[in-house]
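seq:
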Amino acid sequence: MANASFSGFIAATLLLISTASATTFEIRNQCTYTVWAAASPGGGRRLDPGQSWTLNVDIKTSSNRIWGRTGCNFDSSGRGRCQTGDCGGVLQCTGWGQPPNTLAEYALNQFNNLDFYDMSLVDGFNIPMDFSPTNGNCHRILCNADINGQCPNVLRAPGGCNNPCTVFKTNEYCCTNGPGSCAPTTYSKFFKDRCPDAYSYPQDDATSTFTCPGGSTNYRVVFCPRGSGFPIEMVTQ
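struct:
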């Protein structure tokens, strides 16, 4: 009995250490349609309406993102393609997604032991999203506007709305010439007016980056948060 108790103590201790060294992301699909969630790092998961996926991410990591893919077909080996957010034709993503896709971006336990997080429309928009800390008094980022339905014609894409950088590929929209090389445009203001807390163009830092205490904060990403049940256009696969 003593050995069993000691083994149980060791197992519980290891679980506690493992949990303490990871930040938890709950990814939930509240859409009326299937979303193939994607994460880098993390891979990918099919989420039917109402389903969720929990990721544990190392508490000190940077340049990470979570997004949703739509209009996907995968075979039994996990190969296929998605209409939006596709990541190299595989279910288990190892790289980033193809625009247009709404992005939840984060870097954990960075400067001053802070988590930095944002929602980005720099790769366009495909699914309404809520990106929120689940503990503490940190800022909730919400983008639940009908951007796909209201998208300017020149930015429209099957299943989503492109950012102008994707379409025009010029410094005016992509800020490729470095800091201070571009400014808001009519197209970036289209996104900013509808989702004020999200990145609308690459140098939209002042109103789009948020912080929370590192190492003690968990997060939730919700596709189609309450009040955003807009239909999406999909091509027949």
